[in-house]
Protein 1
Amino acid sequence: MNLILIGIQGSGKGTQAQLLAKNYKLAHISIGELLREEEEKKTWLGKKIAILINKGSLVPDRISVAMAKKKIEEIEKSKKYNGYILDGFPRNLNQAKKLSKFAKIDHVINFTLTDKESMNRIVSRVECAKCGSIYSTLKYKKKTCQKCGGILKRRADDNDAAVMKRIKTFHALTEPVVEFYKKNGLLKVVDGKNSISKVYSDTKKVLK
Ligand code: AMP
């Protein structure tokens, strides 16, 4: 089973991707995560990527599409999984069209959330530097990860200006992707404002 998770910032797609990956034995592909890994290597490309991410812009399609293609090929070759979850890809129509040339997608899930709720969630979001687990500082007060003990930190691109830009980009470029998958019958909608466990059970229902 191959899935695409779409949603505005903070809609919970990363958290749901981790839960679904474990439950269905799927590989979790987060292009944002792969880009941040490249950034950490401090290569020429990594430095360019960091500038774009930290101001809330998308990286060029040729980079994100190539990363997604390479990762999908690796996963399919490894035969270790029952499929994969694309988290945050495709983010515009061009990426969606390119993806359809090398991937067979079974379901696309759109986690809905208002802009206001998105903003509220992002300002309180921290991520484990080691395993990528996501917490809300409103509910989790510790400085280290419950799962692996890694340090929790705010993402560099979770600043107000970058978040506003990402929200705008979502409406302008990613919403047409939602329409694209609605037209070809793959789209499922899940209300992202509920608790993690409710969103998770609603998601499993739409996958049945
Ligand atoms: P995310 O971790 O999904 O929130 O992504 C963080 C950032 O990585 C985004 O704000 C973009 O700058 C970049 N990014 C992630 N996915 C894509 C994509 N599909 N296309 C272009 N840029 C992306």
Protein 2
Amino acid sequence: MEMSRRLAVKLAGAAVVAMRPGAVALPAPAHRPHAGDQARHKAEELVRRMTLDEKITQLHGTGPQFPGSGYNGSIPGNSRLGIPALYLADGPNGVGNGATGVTQWPSAKALAAAWDPGLARRYGAAYGAEQAGKGHNVALAPCVNILRVPNWGRSAEAFTEDPHLNSRLAEAVVEGIQSQYVIATVKHFAANNQETDRMSVDVVVSRRALHEIYFPAFRAAVQQGGAAAVMTAYNKIDGSYASENAYAVGQVLRGEWGFDGMVVFDWGGTHSTVAAAKAGSDVEMPGGTYFGTALKNAVRNGEVAESVVDGMVADVLTAMFRAGLFDHRLPDPRSALRTVVSSREHLALARSISVQGSVLLKNQGVLPFSGAVRSVAVIGEAAHRIPQPTYGSATVNRTGTAITPLAGIEARAGTVKVVSSHDLLGRTTDAAAVAAKADRAVVFVGDTAGEGTDRSTLALPAGQNELIEAVAAANPNTVVVLNTSGAVLMPWLDKVRGVIANWYAGQEQGAAIAALLFGDAEPGGRLPETFPATDRQGPAGSGDRYPGDGVSVRYDEGLAVGYRWYHRSGQKPLFPFGFGLSYTRFTLGDLGVRTGADGGAQVRVTVRNTGSRTGSEVVQLYLEHPDAAGEPSPVLKTFAKATLAPGGSRTVELSVPRDAFAVWSGERQGWTVLPGRYGIHVGRSSADLPLSAEFPVL
Ligand code: GLC
């Protein structure tokens, strides 16, 4: 009797992480919401009652959905056994696939820039409630791929370049979504970091970089967040498609991490029947080319043991039991097509995310507008629209009247005179003339990025740099608002007095940016990605490192991704990871470090608001390993956001558990904590760490 696939893989996986001197056990799976141990047991009981045809039906989609359906994949229910139908819907920035009556949220990047897992959890719950209200019980989100190249076309759907921040946000959003009895599908596993050749490119990457950079957020989503589903990526990893990768899916996801939920292929990302079934993947979408009749035939002719199919179906049903789908039936999506699931509360949350996630990059006395400001010029085509990904599964229809930047500023201005230039891109005389007459000029600029294509440059498109230069020449008190997917180049930076990274800010953008400009709120964000100074900066500077030769792309920078690269290479970026200013000022002091009960570090630091306005500071802790560990830089291990009134102070407690000191050892094929002298560095960005202490590990 063939040992069940799940058990065989689990035993193999377990051998890899057996404790050794200095080795570190992986964190035990946290309690999963709505779960308990019954999920797998109930699933396997149900499988025993299913016919082979019913099992096969559970393992593939019904084909492409009609446009505007609000979802992009479905599996019919089984009325004989009481199994609910599955409706799988995009995306990370809101209910997509043409759905109406939904909130167009700020992008995942804006959410990441807030550095606030509690806010991320609230977003997940609100977004999950909207998916549920539309009858979708599987959300194809969050996207937790690491930002390896800043010009990745899907940068706006992703969070960050750093594995720790990525992990905290991933688990929070997953918990939020699944609190609404909707399956969260963390995607795209793994190393999907570019659109160029995405369907086939072979990512050549070390196992250490996979485990320390590209895997962590998936592991956190699964083990801490309790994600009930994982979507595999299109690309290959070290020679075999991610969707049938025995190492990534079989040994790591299933074996080491103990994931027993649903693994769904990206749409059209299935490439085989037998190899994919045996690797540990479960569900083909949107149709059943490989996991429909072909899989049934493979069982009939003995190529795939029926026990393997039983395990696959049990994965799907376990995910459904674990997320509460059997006990919480949703409306039929067809009957919910016109249901409005957005709400005033959700729009208020969208506004708050945009405010908290906006990053003040420069401010030479121009922000917030003081009482002396009597006129404002609003410039730029981007002031008249709401930016979002231009194409692909992350696009979202907004509900009701979107508040554009101009509309938001006009609504907030009161007695302040607002003038605007309806200049068409490329014609700057009108804009300069309008700007010259106002006390402040605010130029809104944006990029166009989306699924399927990487940005060819980080430069602002369509003459926007020239527009900013012309306006700044006409008005020294010029502020630039960046409504972009991510990092952009700023050749005009020295000529303007204020810059705010406002990202793709969602349909409440105008109200949020107006609150920030007029000082009703403070930009609370910090950069979740490095902003390079030129297109040539960063780890992917050469062809074989990005975008590759059409066959493979080599991640030869290893661990040196994002700020890690800049630290090791000595390149100076325009703005570093973790950077962000405030409308007030903070000091950090009184660093205290002691050894915690588990041998890790317990750290305390006092934050003081020494300015005249309430504001937020994000205290960041970076761990420096001994040289022998081979880490390219101090790495973010924890952070805390403190909001303080003027004159207020707070002692922040930061803990670095012993497991977090571990590095992934190629020779041990597992985690290990090296003895030696570590550095604890605390500050307000990866490049501003004024407080340090040595921490020995024996
Ligand atoms: C895609 C995307 C994936 C999305 C899926 C369904 O091509 O890569 O993120 O969830 O199709 O629309």
